[in-house]
Specification:
About 20% of the residues lie in helices and about 20% in strands. It is of the alpha+beta class. It has a 5-stranded mixed sheet, with helices on both faces. A 3-stranded antiparallel sheet has the order 6-7-10. A 3-stranded antiparallel sheet has the order 11-12-13, with no helix packed on it.
Length: about 350
């Protein structure tokens, strides 16, 4: 019997043997091997234009360096991401990026999360050689919650590709040519009305795109981060709650390919202020015989609830009031509880809704 064609290829990356599926790029193969290749324009959910030139690696036998984000791995390849040629190329690319980049790190919202900051600290030149004045483009309001700082932009085009490929809205483009190139909106349209524009702030690798809502509100290293689920609808988007001094500063998406990929909508992103309200209940309450609500513990509240439910069980139809923001699992458990108590209706009511939905 003839040998079956293999669905995997084997290569060597920085001396480590790696087996990956056919079609895997060098950058993805390196990540599987635990090696992070610097990159800007590449994003796993977007097309790869290979235009930032940060991910150049040396492939044994190849005459030139190869962009790791678009070069598929071939069987038997020997790849080096840390060879003198590869490191020299990255240092040169970073030097070009810094020609016009301003020294905004002390005031930039991206500071502490900036890939340019990280890569320059790791592999950049110790001293700049440019004697020409930097270009000054200032700040542009793209509409919605997005501000654009053109002199910080490295033209990775992640934002342009996101709006075209994910949001299905060609709201951004690259205008001008050469060293005059900038990201801009079409005429006066801007990003007003876009439901997904906040994601371009998340994927910008530098501080070119920032959120008006978060502008100068907190430093990245001052934030405590907690994985959670977006509470603003029943979609269940995976998010990260970022807070300082026990106040929520912003919500960010967490990758989950089965639910929300890498994204979240602006509706959920910007509705967090209610979490910071000082008059929110922070403990369960029981109504005393005199009618007053008294703070209590969860075990006492649940015990009292069970006793009251047992007292009315089977006497009359039960009506349960639920939130449409609750996940399906919680709604299902509530429906089972109503059925156990004798059956009845479940009313889904939201504080923001003008009507209620009754389910038998």
């Amino acid at each position: 019997m003839a040998d079956q064609p293999r669905d995997t290829v084997t290569c060597t990356i920085n001396g480590r043997r790696v087996e990956v599926p056919k079609g895997t790029t060098i950058l993805e193969a390196a990540e599987r091997a635990g090696t992070a290749i610097p990159h800007y324009c590449y994003h796993p959910a977007l097309s790869a234009p290979a235009m930032c030139r940060m991910c150049l690696v040396e492939v044994e036998g190849a005459p030139k360096l190869a962009p790791a984000c678009v070069t598929p791995v071939a069987d038997g390849q020997v790849i080096s991401t840390e060879s003198p040629r590869a490191r020299e190329a990255r240092t040169g690319v970073l030097e070009f990026y810094l020609v016009n980049h301003p020294l905004d790190c002390p005031i930039c919202d991206q500071s502490g999360e900036c890939k340019l900051q990280d890569y320059v600290a790791a592999e950049g030149r110790r001293h700049g050689r440019s004697l020409e004045p930097k270009r000054v483009l200032g700040r542009d309001d793209f509409g919605g919650d997005v501000l654009y700082y053109g002199d910080r932009c490295i033209l990775c085009t992640r934002c342009v590709r996101f709006m075209r490929e994910i949001a299905q809205d060609d709201a951004l483009c690259v205008v001008q040519r050469g060293d005059r190139s900038v990201i801009d909106t079409f005429f006066e349209r801007g990003l007003d009305g876009s439901l997904w524009a906040g994601n371009i702030v998340d994927i910008c690798p530098v501080g070119a795109l920032v959120s008006k809502d978060f502008l100068h509100k907190a430093r990245a290293w001052d934030l405590d981060r907690t994985p959670s689920i977006c509470p603003n609808c029943s979609q269940g988007c995976n998010i990260r709650i970022e807070r300082r001094d026990n106040l929520v500063m912003r919500l960010k998406p967490r990758p989950n390919p089965e639910v929300n990929s890498y994204w979240m909508c602006d509706y959920g992103r910007h509705r967090y202020e209610w979490l910071n309200r000082a008059d929110r209940l922070d403990a369960p309450q029981l109504r005393a015989p005199d009618g007053e609500l008294v703070r209590t513990s969860w075990p006492e509240a649940i015990t009292a609830l069970v006793a009251r439910l047992e007292a009315v069980r089977g006497r009359a139809p039960v009506v349960a009031v639920a939130s449409p923001m609750a996940p399906n699992e919680d709604a299902g458990l509530l429906a089972r509880l109503v059925a156990v108590l004798g059956g009845g209706q479940t009313v889904y009511r939201s504080p923001r809704a003008e009507h209620e939905v009754v389910c038998p």
